[in-house]
Amino acid sequence: MSGTELNWMSAVELAALIREKKASPVEVMDAVLAQVEKHEPKLNAFFLLLADQAREKAKAAEAAVASGAELGPLHGVPVTIKDLAPLKGLPMGSGSHTTGSPVQSEDTPLATRLVEAGAIIIGKTTTPEFGWTGVSRSPLTGLTHNPWKHGYNAGASSAGAGVAAAAGFGPLHQGSDGAGSVRMPAHFCGVYGLKPSHGRVPYYPMSLGDFTSHNGPLTRTVADAALMTRVMAGPHPWDHSTLESPPADYPARLHEPPARRWRIAYSPDLGHARVDPEVAALVRIAAEGFAAAAKAELVEVSPVWGPAGPELGRFFWSANLSRLKGILPEWRGKMDPGLVACIEESQDVTVSEYQRQRARKYDYIREINGLFKEFDFLVTPAVSVAAFPLPRLMPEHWPEHEWDWLSWAEFSYPFNMSGNPAASLPCGFTAEGLPVGMQIVGPRFDDLGVLQASAIFEKTHPWADKRPPLG
Q1: I need a surface site. Which of 128, 162, 189, 431 has the fewest CB within 10 A?
Q2: Catalytically annotated residue among 157, 158, 412, 418
Q3: pTM for this prediction
Q4: 155 and 184 in contact (C-beta within 8 Å)?
């Protein structure tokens, strides 16, 4: 079996081959690292590459197979961790010069679970400064490039994770999502990204974004996302918001047929969002194709709660980042100018104003969840635009703003506030050859349903065989 074949295989396939001794962890690691070493200087997906360490762990994993040891579900499978999560003994830069990239004293729980399942961490992937934006740029690591078109935005804040998934740098990539940061890279890079229900996967260190941040997978297949989520999920004492019950067996139940005919809501704009025509057309076709594949009823809707989103989204994005105002006097000149502007917009917000807006947000969340009394899923565009040139914060044909990238991400942050599971699925390409994603949102806690719905679309509209022109 060639290295190229191994390089693009799913985690499900690789784990099976390793268990059956048809491929070794060393062979798999060599294939993945060869791909990284060939393309990484151009793409810039890694803050920290752990090639030597990963090779040593692959040798140990191979010895475990040879000895007949009990193997975990991800034994010998490469995985990456985003550089907003700590790994013991390794630096964490968070995309910023201001941190000094301190060496960490503990692993984030999801990393511990992945390693205990047999996965091998090959590196930490890039993120914008403190994960603040949807653009793949950072003062610390520079520009992270879209594999489909060099010099173009790959999405963020899980920038390197999305690029690594699309470029064949292994099958499993952890991302975090506070306003779309798993789903946006999935959309821009043509891969699958799942933001599980809030609390499904422990988040540590705890985010200060008022319970909007979620951990989830970026993968090339739905089955890999189901497996990775299953491994990462479950309660943990370091995150008091984690859900008490263990997750469903997502891999085993992925292809269960619906118990009844689904009703699917489709909203092209949530009643307010601007969307580029080419993106809108591709998502409409995909939504119709999804409903047909699922034998479901598709109803176009314009939710009454939609227009309240922009004011709430912008208020909380800026207000929650205002916690960083204390570092501005020393570090302003070495920080992302957009982040500085975002911080300064809300640095004088009072506690009473924050609480008033919070009350409005809770009403908004209640209204969002009311939609799922009538519908099983909501389908929207994942993002309003296809990839655009770096280092721009906005596409050239969109109104300029010093920090408001949310204007082209109106479909993602509502479901960070509400905590609903949501996924971005590749659904086509623009005339320029740039990927576009369709978003499927499910009721709170129905992560299994979103995965099952995604698998139905994937079966009739496969995407994993489509690879970027890396050169």
Answers
A1: 431
A2: 157
A3: 0.97
A4: yes
